[in-house]
Amino acid sequence: MLIDSHCHLNYEGLAERQGEALANARAAGVSGFLNISTREREWGDVVATAERESDVWATVGIHPHEADQHADLGREVLLEASRHARVVGLGESGLDYYYDKSDRAVQQDLFRMHIGVARETGLPLVIHTRDADQDTGDILEDEMGNGAFPALIHCFTASPEFGRRVLDMGLTISLSGIVTFKNARELQEFAKEIPADRLLVETDSPFLAPVPHRGKPGEPAFVADTAAFVADLRATSIEALGDTTTANFFNLFTKAKA
């Protein structure tokens, strides 16, 4: 049993073949999918997919690339959207200083707003961070001082030092197909350190197809390849890794709506 803990089923490349992609994944042993939103205008479609498919759940949130277009988004708007029964997480939100598509101060303000809603609702925050280790870690530590909240770093590609820092805060780490890439040696070594009860796997499809699918559009079925690679790294079976990461997913994402 496996869960794709981060996919974009309503993005081009999957939206037009959503049923086929889900069927392929189920045939590969994937039993659940977290459909991630990145901007307000897509929340309705993302949630509708989760309403239609019993093994799909949804998040609502604003990606840092979209922060400038949502600078005035009120917390009440996010809070209200989060109340839907099929919404089990917030985000993805965070900081992206690699592309800098939005003003950094606006990114930081929206990130903190998402954290506040996560704290209030108990819903985990799905965090995107790229080239922003210091500020992401500082904001998380500062906000933890105001009260704990559940969160995970999705598609982890940061330094081992950052990884250890967020693990010390109690966060979860999700590994994507990037861990299978030949140039990801440091990430592969760090993957062995992640505590078993703090580990998830994901595709971030339609992006980041793992080996042996590189060059193809990503799809949720490919989480099985990433899981097999991670299981080998950690000297365990894919069955054991699947059971552990599935339990971790439900423990993190569904208990607030139980």
UniProtKB/TrEMBL annotation:
Pfam families: TatD_DNase. The keyword Coiled coil does not apply. It comes from the Bacteria. GO terms for cellular component: cytosol. A divalent metal cation 1 binds at residues 6, 8, 92, 204. The keyword Metal-binding applies. One of its GO terms (molecular function) is hydrolase activity, acting on ester bonds. SUPFAM superfamilies: Metallo-dependent hydrolases. Belongs to the metallo-dependent hydrolases superfamily. TatD-type hydrolase family. This is LuxR family transcriptional regulator. It comes from Aurantiacibacter marinus.
